[in-house]
Amino acid sequence: MKAIRVHRHGGPEVLSHEEVGIGRPGPGEVLVRNRAIGLNFVDTYFRTGAYAPPGLPFIPGNEGAGEVLEVGEGVAGFAPGDRVAYVETLGSYAEQRIVPAHFLVPLPEAIGFETGAAMMLKGLTAQVLLRRIAGSSGSGPATPS
User: Fold this and answer.
1) b (16+ CB within 10 A) / e for 76-114
2) Which residue positions in the chain have pLDDT lower than 70?
3) The pTM is what?
């Protein structure tokens, strides 16, 4: 499987496209074939070292969308062929990804993979800012008059 890996911190030149092994999903995990991934500014923080990744090398990226290839033991609610989206820890800049099932959401046919991948982290960020932060200030979001 091909993935983008970062072996040292730096600019875009440290991104390396290479072959990596992935294994099979364990209990509670799902193997997803990524059809689209989200690109987020936070990815540059991990690449440059502004945020510490769990270790080097690492595969960047936090969100994606695709199809379930295989489910691990004890996974209910997902089966091979299902369309899913997720936001999780680093690792989505890859053709395939093992994701804990509790991070997956079903992706309806009406929502494309690109939209599914782009809406997870950015969508949750917008939801928190609009509903929890602005809403908790007492003034809430502006309403049309």
Assistant:
1) eebeeebbbbbbbebbbbbebbbbbbebbeebeeeeebe
2) 135-145
3) 0.84
